[in-house]
Amino acid sequence: MQAVEVFSARDLRNRSGELIKHAEQGHMTVITKHGKPSMLAIPFDENLLRHGVQRTMALYFVQSRQMTLAQAARFAGLDLEEFIELLGASGIDAVDYPPEELEGELEHAL
In whole angstroms, what is the distance from residue 53 CA to residue 39 CA? Predict the structure, then answer.
């Protein structure tokens, strides 16, 4: 999952099909007007229906590595344990280490 896409109001007029395609692929998009954020386009998916906008955004930001677990938990209005449970229920890994980093973390844990 990639970072939030940014479209201008002009892009919205000229590239609306691309914006819809991005949403269908699960991407959030910020629409700007005169360089300032004006709207947020959020994919209409199962997470949005089950958890609402704020928690869906927190899930997205963790999955796209734009927030830490602790930051996203605060953003979602949950304590860390509740947020980790939400990640699991949404099928998102709370810890996503490359294999070489995981081995190092496991060595330090033992």
Answer: 13
In tens digits, the chain (110 residues) has pLDDT values of 456 788 899 988 899 898 888 888 888 888 899 988 888 888 887 878 888 888 988 998 888 888 888 999 999 999 999 999 999 999 888 877 677 766 766 676 65
Nearest to 40 by CA among 5, 82, 1: 5
Residues 66 and 93 in one domain: yes
Claim to verify: residue 65 and residue 91 sit in the same structural domain: yes
Give CA separation, 55 vs 3, 5, 90, 91, in Å. 17, 19, 11, 14
Number of independent structural domains in the chain? 2
Same domain, 21 and 56: no
* 18: containing domain: 5-41
- Give the separation between CA 67 and CA 54, rounded to whole angstroms: 14
Which secondary-structure segment (H or E) carries 38? strand 36-41
